[in-house]
Amino acid sequence: MEQRIAIPTRQFFAKVNQSFSQNSLMTNCFPNLARSITLEYQCSVSLDLYDETDCKTLATQAKEGRHLTVVENESNPISVKVNLVEDGYQAWLPLEKLSTLQPVSEKYKPIALARVEIEARLPEIIPYVQAAKEQPNYYLWGGTLGPNYDCSGLMQAAFAASGIWLPRDSYQQEAFTERVAIADLLPGDLIFFGSKRVDHVALHLGDRYYIHSSGKTMGRNGIGIDILSPEGDEISQSYYQKWWSCGRVMGSYRPD
Question: Strand (E) positions, 8-153?
Fold first, then answer.
């Protein structure tokens, strides 16, 4: 049989030219950033990312091995905006950390997981959070690496350790999950709290007990266990009054 050779199309060459153009632009703007043919990078070390260009307030953290892209034309003398590929979260990276980004030859590919596969991994997720509780820790706004976490960072880290991605923030996690009633809660479901909108999340352990990382003002300044009931201690009662909804993780997050 005659072997046919695929002839590259105009669209193919257009994409190649666009990739080279974008690479040239970024390497010209950021000399210490290596060129990536995929325009995607991997963290060679764990990184702190910030919510403003001045890099003073922590927004989130990126564990070694995570993928990200550099957002073009969003630079300043201090930092550059980056997009974390796995959850689509954007924050600011100090310019001196660009040299820690390694080009990748293949882009991140999200994995589709069914609910039955999520259930099979829950026996790993709950012990992860319980083990984190046993380590000396305190509540850290933006913390996802441990030993210090914020509420949604702890949830994201626990699920990610088992290959399941959640969105970064608690209100995003609430929107991502499927609503369940309190009476139908299962171990591994998420419990959300808030006033005007969701601003806190916890992991259900069973019998309405949940584990979460809470702050100093209305919490335990770290990871602790509370109960979703008006009969609990003062902290549990405070959170019960702010209960918003319960959600079940039905798959792994796939950003657009």
Answer: 41-43, 47-50, 58-62, 67-75, 79-84, 89-94, 101-103
